[in-house]
Amino acid sequence: MEGIPIAFKRRGNLTKDYIYKPSAAKRRGLEVLEVHEDDFEKALALEPSIIGINARSLKTLEVSLENAARVLEKVPKRCIRIVESGIKSSRDIQMFMKKGANAFLIGTTLMRDPLSLFEFANAYRYSA
């Protein structure tokens, strides 16, 4: 089965679709937003301009910033690179920015401590 779950963006609206034929996604004008370590190569073949690297494994639901960092280093510079899941500190932001990340999706940490937003913003600002 030529199938990988990928989130897509279509005309400014973010929707999460599970497209099992990545080539069909390109024909529909969809832009790949999210990949996991396992499906990176297939997603890259679609030549996306935006690519999100999710640190959470779909198989185990475990978060590995190390795996995300390895994938991030393989993403072409022409892509906007977003790191998703597992960001807990300004050190994480700084480490990923050194490896080429352009943006971050931070959820759980901000839900638990909304004021950590200021720490993350400063890390981003001074690492850019």
Summarize the structure in short:
The protein is built from 6 helices and 7 strands; from the N terminus they run ββαββαβαβαβαα. With 128 residues, the protein is α/β, with parallel strands linked by helices.
Please describe the topology of this protein.
Blueprint: E1 8-10, E2 13-15, H1 22-27, E3 31-32, E4 34-35, H2 40-44, E5 50-54, H3 65-72, E6 80-84, H4 90-98, E7 103-105, H5 108-112, H6 116-127
Helix pairs in contact: 4-6
Describe this structure in words.
The chain is an alpha/beta fold and 128 residues long. It has a single domain, classed as Alpha-Beta Barrel (TIM Barrel), CATH 3.20.20. Helices cover 35% and strands 18% of the residues. The chain has 6 helices and 7 strands; from the N terminus they run ββαββαβαβαβαα. The protein has a 4-stranded parallel beta sheet. The longest helix has 12 residues. The radius of gyration is 15 Å and the shape is globular.
CATH architecture: Alpha-Beta Barrel
Indicate the radius of gyration in whole angstroms. 15 Å
Largest sheet: 4 strands, parallel
- Name of the top-level CATH class: Alpha Beta
| Distance, first to last CA | 41 Å
| CATH homologous superfamily classification | Aldolase class I
Low-confidence stretches: 1-20
Give the total of beta strands. 7
N-to-C order of helices and strands: EEHEEHEHEHEHH
The helix tally amounts to 6
What is the fold named in CATH at topology level?
Answer: TIM Barrel
Structural class, from helix and strand content?
alpha/beta
By oligomeric state, this entry counts as single chain
Overall number of structural domains: 1
Average pLDDT, to the nearest integer?
78
In spatial order, strands of the major sheet run 4-5-6-7
The proportion of residues in beta strands is: 15-25%
Helix content: 25-40%
